[in-house]
Amino acid sequence: MKLRKKVWLIVGIGILAIALGSLFTVYLQQVREQEELNDKLLAAQTLLPTLITQKEDLRNQLSQAESSLDTSQAQFPQAVESIEYGEHIFEIADRCNLTLASLTFPKPTNKKEGPVTYSVVSLSLPVRGALKDIFEFIDIIRTDARFASTQVKSVDLNVAGGSATISVDIYGYKR
User: Fold this and answer.
1) 3-state class (DSSP) for residue 160
2) pLDDT tens, 97-133?
3) What gap in Å lies between CA 168 and CA 139, rounded to an integer?
4) Quick check: 100 and 86 in contact, CB under 8 A?
5) Rounded CA separation 154/164 (Å)
6) What pTM was estimated for this model as a whole?
7) Domain edges within the chain
8) Cα separation of 147 and 160, whole Å?
9) Are residues 123 and 86 in contact, defined by beta-carbon separation less than 8 angstroms?
């Protein structure tokens, strides 16, 4: 019987050794995983302040871009109201001592610039008067706040006849 007890003792010690070896292996794997996770956590904690700063910077940029968009959209009327522009053009021509021969408003066309579509009305403004008055008229059309969305495209000047035909585009913002 002594042999059986020794065999059972050796088998028990072997099973115990295998169990301890397995537990030790699992423990080492968990220690390695914990070290990797700690390294990743440290890297994330180091990166967090930079990301927070970038997030705030991006929010500020977004805020500025939205403000700039609002400002830009405010410069462009929603629709080009021919009566209003016609009144302004006649008022400026009168103030500059010019005779505006005719004024017709064609149907607006669409012009696309990137993702934005503009409504564009192209006008031809035939005026008569002194050259200095014609130049003053052109300058007012270019600088008057009511014409902030207007571009002077061309000026066909007849120096001898004291007349000019001024081509302008009036832009309106379409949503």
Assistant:
1) coil
2) 998 888 887 777 888 777 777 788 888 899 998 889 9
3) 12
4) no
5) 10
6) 0.52
7) 1-75, 82-174
8) 29
9) no
